[in-house]
Fold DUF1275 domain-containing protein.
Amino acid sequence: MGVQLPRWVWIGAGALACVAGMINVVGYLGFEHQAVTHLTGTTTLFGAAVASADLRSAMHLLGVAAAFMAGAALSGMIIQDSTLRLGRRYGVALAIESVLLVLAVPLFQRQQLAGALLAAMACGLQNAMATTYSGAVIRTSHLSGMFTDLGIGLGHALRGMPLQRRRLLLCALIISCFLAGGIFGALLFARVGYLALLVPATLTGLVGAGYVLYRQWQSLHGRGIA
């Protein structure tokens, strides 16, 4: 990757990956043991549920997938772009993600499926926010692509081929932050249960509100962002 990634891309990708790691571990440790940040396992389990004629599980898993996709669609409506660039409505999207997570907490506590649906919707919204920057594919809610790119880089290194060092560093950052979020989220869940979701909700809410205020300040001072 020949283009220098600005600092805000690194910070944002790491922070969102950490948030996703926390959300996912809470969903997995919860009453349904349901991962909510990605759909590979969900789709596999849906197929198994259909094959075994387990209608309840099939509808549950289909609902999680639909909620994730709905969150991504909402992000597309708000941001209206597939490329990261300052000036898009990221603050609004992050604020909505925060609200969804806050609303999910009491539903999770009452062991209602709607909690997982809201959490999945929040993750779909977040994942669709961060797509590409200067050709670098950025996904913050799942790691298959990150591990794949690291493996490709290792293969290139073994063959003596030139490496996309910044791309590989970005992958390592996202993986590390997702893992850190999972560890921290699991420790929090053991202590406070589903209230652990209030931490990523607070983080996304503060960043979202701060970014909206920043954009307004830029506009007032004639420094509108493209």
